[in-house]
Amino acid sequence: MGSSIIQSTGYDIFIGKGSILELNAFLQEPKFCNSRLFALVDEFTAEHCLPIVSSFVDRFKEIQVLEIESGEASKSIEVCTRLWKTLGEMGADRQSLLINLGGGVIGDMGGFVASTFKRGIPFVNVPTTLLSQVDASIGGKVGVDLDHLKNEIGVFSSPKAVFIYPDFLKTLSRREMMSGFAEVVKHALIADASYWDFVRNTNVADGAVWQKMIEYSIRVKNSIVQADPYEKGLRKALNFGHTIGHAIESFYLESPSQKLLHGEAVAIGMITEAYLSHLKTGLSHKDLKSISNFIMERFGYKDLEPMADHRLLELMMHDKKNVGEELNFTLLKAIGSCEVNCTVDTYMIKEALKFYRDYQSWN
Ligand SMILES: NC(=O)c1ccc[n+]([C@@H]2O[C@H](COP(=O)([O-])OP(=O)(O)OC[C@H]3O[C@@H](n4cnc5c(N)ncnc54)[C@H](O)[C@@H]3O)[C@@H](O)[C@H]2O)c1
Ligand SMILES: [Zn+2]
User: Fold this and answer.
1) Which of the residues are catalytic?
2) Are 330 and 231 in contact (CB under 8 A)?
3) How far apart are CA 343 and CA 355, in angstroms?
4) Domain extent listing, the chain
5) Is there a contact between 251 and 314 (Cβ–Cβ < 8 Å)?
6) pLDDT at position 323, please?
7) Which residues does a 6 A CB cutoff place in the pocket of ligand 1?
8) 251 closest CA partner among 241, 260, 242, 238
């Protein structure tokens, strides 16, 4: 069982079937062999992923498991408070290690809880969704939501290592797979035209492509993060699809009756921002069509009608990536290359939302 290793900012990322054995070896390293071990899980990763860890990790019996309820609603400061208290009651000290076993919610919140408990204890990420394997588990951003504002509270803090075992994806729902696939699509669009050709011909349900897809995607994200770990400039490339995408996601967070996954919102964000790229940064009409058609075909059309443009614009204005009143976007110059810090006025944003809403008629 082999694995590839990618080096990030001060930690290694292991990808492949062998990554779970690397986790086992890591827990036996001298610096952690006397550490108390804790794992953060939700009910689904407790059911599907913990048993896999238990069959490969020799120290499994020592691991004290903290379980939270799955879902974005758990990514809150209230749940963090509960976890800090529980860690204290269970005897966690500065040498203890937290293993985040789950998707982006577990990784973001577990990383934040670990980074702030007793001024910071070490943590590792064992991501179990496609989204967390290709995106959330690397890059050092950890945090929680504040009411309906996504990732409003957080810090930059890196894990000690990341272990990516693609076979965890076998139990993931198709909808969650597609949510992660949106980030894969984004990585290709912002950085690599040849990867876009691979992605366009990928059937995400086919386990045979997972390792290559995850590795390729992480290489894109990792090289951007390494060049700009604190998001001073270049890292904003990763925001493609996310300015409008986040606003749509936040809009849905405000409405308890409907649910939209992160990647589903980003898919809409990528179509609308590809349209802005056509207007502002020279993305050709042919590329705009090829991006929009592909995303529509894979993700389907979502009725944006209930979303008021003015509320979406308010949410975009609030986005911390915007400076002052100007709306800041990362746009595509062509497939595989992008430009950060493009300012766009609200009229164009409304046009982009209209472009999406009118999809049926322009096809
Ligand atoms: N830190 C970052 O850089 C970064 C980047 C992107 C996204 N994020 C964050 O990540 C979060 C979304 O992550 P996500 O999409 O992984 O969501 P998630 O963590 O909510 O997981 C999705 C669902 O899948 C279940 N699940 C997880 N692994 C499973 C498995 N192997 N089999 C069956 N079910 C499984 C979970 O229990 C959950 O119900 C958001 O909060 C987002 O803000 C962070
Ligand atoms: Zn994202």
Assistant:
1) 119, 141, 183, 221, 231, 235, 239, 242, 246, 262
2) no
3) 19
4) 4-171, 180-362
5) no
6) 59
7) 42, 44-45, 48-49, 70-72, 75, 102-106, 108, 128-129, 131-132, 135-136, 139, 141, 150-151, 168, 171-172, 176, 179, 262
8) 260
Residue whose token pair is 């096809």: 363
Give residue 281 CA to ligand 1 midpoint distance, Å.
32
Residue 363 has pLDDT above 80, yes or no: no
Chain mean pLDDT for the chain: 94
Confidence grade of residue 52 (pLDDT, cut at 50, 70, 90): very high
H/E stretch holding 267 reads helix 262-280
Q: How, if at all, do strands 161-164 and 12-15 pair?
A: parallel
Distance CA 15, CA 19 (A): 6
**How many whole angstroms separate alpha carbon 85 and alpha carbon 70?**
19
Across the range 209-227, mean pLDDT stands at: 96
Looking at the DSSP bridge assignments, the partners of residue 10 are none
Which residue type occupies 39?
Answer: A
Atom number of ligand 1 nearest to Cα 183: 6
Task: Tell which one of 44, 141, 150, 250 to mutate to probe ligand 1, the residue whose CB is within 8 A of the most ligand atoms.
Answer: 44
**4-171 is classed in which CATH architecture?**
3-Layer(aba) Sandwich (3.40)
* CATH 1.20.1090.10 matches 180-362: yes
The pLDDT tens digits for 119-142 are 999 999 999 999 999 999 999 999
pTM (whole model) above 0.90: yes
Rounded to the nearest 5°, which phi and psi values hold at 148? Answer: -95, 5
339 neighbors 331 (Cβ within 8 angstroms): yes
Give the C-alpha distances (Å, rounded to integers) separating 56 from 126, 130, 163, 258: 13, 21, 13, 39
Q: Nearest 5°: phi and psi at 184? A: -60, -45
Where is average pLDDT lowest: 188-202, 245-259, 311-325? Answer: 311-325
165 has pLDDT over 90: yes
Please state which of the ranges 17-31, 148-162, 281-295 shows the lowest mean pLDDT: 148-162
